[in-house]
Amino acid sequence: MLFVNTLKYSLPLLLTLSILGCGDQTESDKRPVKVIHVDVSPLTYSTLRLSTELPGRITAFKEAEVRPQITGIVKSRLYQEGSYVQAGQVLFQIDDTSYQSAVNSEDAQLKKALTSEKNAKKEMLRYAQLVKKKLSSQQIYDEAESTYLQAKAEVAIRQAALNYANIELSYTKIKAPISGQAGFSEVSEGSLLTSSQSDYITTIIQTDNVYIDMQQSALAFYKIQQEFKKATEENPIVPVTITLEDGTIYNQTGQLEFTDTQTNGSTGTVALRAIIPNPDNSLLAGMYVRAHISMPEARDYIVVSQSIVVRSQSGQPSVFVVDEDNKVVKKSITLGSEVDNKWVVKEGLNAGEKVVINNLSKIKNGLTVIVDSVTKHTTETASKTNIENESSTINPDTNSKDLD
Questions:
Q1: Do domains 36-49+298-383 and 97-171 have the same CATH topology?
Q2: CA-based angle 73:76:80, to the nearest 5?
Q3: 311 Cβ contact partners less than 8 Å away, ≥ 6 residues apart
Q4: What are phi and psi of 332, to 5 degrees?
Q5: What is the DSSP string of 377-389?
Q6: 261 backbone dihedrals φ, ψ, rounded to 5°
Q7: Phi and psi at residue 148, in whole multiples of 5°?
Q8: What digits encode the pLDDT tens for the residues 168-208?
Q9: What is the pTM of this model?
Q10: How far is it, in rounded angstroms, from Cα 69 to Cα 79?
Q11: Alpha-carbon distance 291 to 298, whole Å?
């Protein structure tokens, strides 16, 4: 009985609350939609000279492996390991006793041959006079002439033998073929050297200038070639700068020196070589660096901050633009080089368009917004910089190994 009475009084109350609730929902549905406020920035062109970043390896400008040209015992080492040596400087002295003896012997043989030649010449001239006076036969003169010519040939043979002996004697002084930094000595006094040995006894590296050897994918290289074809200069100099492994920027600027004429069939890459000054010998052969190859000339580009670029689930980049009616338009774009914290836009945007720079998570395509302020897009850093770094790809939306 108590339960029935409770239910009797509760039903009117529940109905009243339900009606009131429905009334509140209707009121909330009639509230105006909240308008979103945004700031925009008009796009302008920035003048940039872009660059491509590639991994590179330092190679010595000149490198010589010093080997003996004769067989002998090392008598002494005449240079200090690690020091700078001049071309022609004596590095090692080989025991020259036997080679000097050979020179003396050949010299004596030459003198003997010269004496024989002199006598044969006199004999020939004497018979020549006798033949003129008809006091000797032509046959005797011919034999004398033949003897003289043989003696003359013997002199030439002995002279050549003496020259060869002198050359071998000179090889007992092992000299530096080029100027540069001499490396460790691989032999010591008393070591036996042979003329046919494959092991070098020291190395000399010339590093006043060094090479930077790089590999570029054939496709990316083709794109760079197209950029160079558009250059206003006929043969533009291509500056190259490098960054060390720890991020330190090297204080010298080089230039692109050489590109290979064919693609490596196994890797699909093209070899490039740059040359860069190394006055302090701080760049050592074998070091790995990041090389920045500048494009042929500065051009005008549209640059946007990375913070205003949004991406779809598939990774397609886009930005929001406000039109003349204050409506938001979502525009797909094609990104190019990375410049500091900005992207170069290759396609999709034009100068003068107003891009949204805040409240990006609250807006969508077709939404009407209120523009609070119009600020100049932050491109001063890019426009004042002659050479900017490009990411390791020409287009960040394509395969990231394009330039590697």
A1: no
A2: 135
A3: 317, 318
A4: -75, 140
A5: -S-HHHHT-SB--
A6: -90, -5
A7: -65, -45
A8: 999 999 999 999 999 999 999 999 999 989 999 999 999 88
A9: 0.62
A10: 19
A11: 19
